[in-house]
Design a protein that fits this description.
Structural class: alpha+beta
Largest sheet: 8 strands, mixed
CATH class of the largest domain: Alpha Beta
Number of strands: 21
Strand order of the largest sheet: 4-12-13-16-11-19-17-18
Helix content: 25-40%
Distance between the termini: 23 Å
Number of helices: 12
Strand content: 25-35%
């Protein structure tokens, strides 16, 4: 064998798998990343935003969610106690590499009061602890993690794996895009969001059983930071769940960014919106997503295609993301540049095109979003203001979930699948923790000293 272990993908999951293997003294590990090295990635490049050393987290605002309920599905593989211990130890590694000491969301009487108020508004507040790294700090922490791997793990960037190779239900290695074949005893696949389609195709070719995941579609809401201050000062990011009165659909808030900015992302040729916040640089606004979960039944089995269709429709109408005042949406008229200029909420994404989101979203989605905003008004007065800005669309594509063992191993012996690309995580900390889980299982099989 050329290597003991090949790790495919240098996002959080792949990095922490390689780091754990190196810490246990695994003699030969190769970490392969199809994108650019960390120092060569640029925020303004659509591909660099999601793909490259450090994964999508390199340009995120770095929220480490210490919760068994949010950020992924590792609770399906571990007990609550074991998962919480794993998340805490993984979080400690981030702190050791420069993450800030402060944690939001500690249990207090104020938090209990906020939770009670949410219930009276037909909302459920999911308790969680959050460590906020900040967009400007993510790359420096990733760079320190990279330095920790130097000399202990071989790393290749701009190197794309074309296929996984297996014989008689045992993994044997990988074939690169240039035709080179590399053999190994173990392979850990951590393709992340940008490699979701590749992972789906490889799973199909290897006969791995997968489950179709829902797609979340919605808007990015932007409003004055003062409106959400009572919430964000206590928990920084609030995970609120609502079940719509009209359709009983699950609607949730996602990725809340106090004093943050709305940004764009490129996904398979479409431009979608997202948000982030810095540790020190502050805007006057807070932004967050409202997402509607869409589950599909037979015969349709491609929710990613559906999400892309909605995103491309917005791009077709707006030439990119669309922005609309809530007051204009409720009045049944499109926003114009003049109306946006008169808005009391100043957009942090000024290049978004004023338009009408009712031409983009199905009625069901739009109704769910409006109901959620009405419910939030009871918790944070000012959310349902006519000056609240809505950007569309925001889409969260989740990979098909691969059937895995408790050690995150596929039915192909010694082939492990981790992180967002395997459909088992949805955030930085659980993705990182999944890398630790798979690496520890390999360590046992290599019989390395623990």
């Amino acid at each position: 064998m050329d290597y003991d272990v090949i790790v495919v993908g240098a996002g959080p999951a792949g990095i922490f798998a390689a780091l754990t293997l190196a810490d246990y003294g695994s003699p030969s590990v190769l970490l392969i990343e199809q994108g650019k090295d960390l120092s060569k990635r640029r925020r303004k490049s659509g591909k660099d935003m999601l793909c490259g050393w450090g994964g999508a987290g390199a340009f995120s605002d770095g929220k480490l969610i210490i919760s068994t309920e949010v950020g992924g599905f590792l609770q399906d593989f571990l007990s609550r106690t074991s998962l919480l211990e794993l998340l805490k130890s993984t979080d400690d590694i981030y702190v050791a590499h420069g993450a800030p000491a402060h944690v939001y969301g500690e249990s207090t009487a104020e938090l209990e009061d906020l939770s009670d108020r949410a219930r009276t508004a037909d909302l459920e507040l999911i308790p969680m602890r959050i460590r906020h790294i900040g967009t400007e700090n993510c790359r420096s922490i990733l760079n320190r993690l990279r330095e920790s791997l130097n000399g202990r793990v071989e790393m290749r960037t701009n190197c794309r794996v074309q296929n996984l190779l297996a014989e008689k239900d045992h993994i044997t290695g990988v074939r690169l895009e240039n035709g080179e074949v590399i053999h190994s005893r173990f392979v850990v696949v951590a393709p992340g969001r940008s490699g979701a389609n590749w992972m789906r195709d490889e799973a199909a070719s290897l006969g791995l059983h997968t489950y179709v995941r829902p797609v979340d579609i919605g808007v990015r809401v932007e409003l004055p930071a003062a409106v959400m201050k009572q919430i964000t000062d206590r928990v920084y990011e609030s995970k609120l769940i609502y079940y719509s009165k009209t359709f009983d659909d699950k609607v949730r808030t996602f990725c809340m960014n106090p004093h943050g900015e709305v940004v764009t992302e490129k996904n398979d040729g479409s431009i979608t919106v997202n948000g982030h916040s810095y540790a020190r640089k502050k805007s006057e606004n807070t932004n967050f997503a409202i997402l509607v979960s869409s589950n599909f039944t037979q015969p349709f089995d491609d929710p990613i295609a559906y999400g892309l269709y909605i995103a491309r429709l917005a791009n077709l109408l707006g030439g990119g993301p669309i922005i609309q005042r809530l007051g204009d949406l409720l009045a049944g008229r499109r926003s114009t540049r003049q109306r946006i200029d008169r808005c009391l909420t100043r957009p942090t994404l000024p290049e978004a095109t004023p338009g009408d989101l009712s031409y983009v979203f199905p009625y069901r989605h739009l109704k769910n979003i409006i109901e959620m905003l009405e419910a939030l008004e009871n918790l944070a007065p000012g959310v349902y203001s006519r000056h609240t800005l809505l950007y569309g669309v925001e889409v969260k594509f989740y990979s098909n979930r691969i059937q895995l063992s408790a050690e995150l191993e596929t039915k192909i012996t010694n082939l492990f699948a981790i992180g967002d690309g395997a459909g088992i995580t949805r955030g930085l900390l659980q993705a990182s923790a999944s890398g630790v889980m798979a690496a520890r299982a390999i360590v046992k099989r290599l019989k390395l000293p623990s």
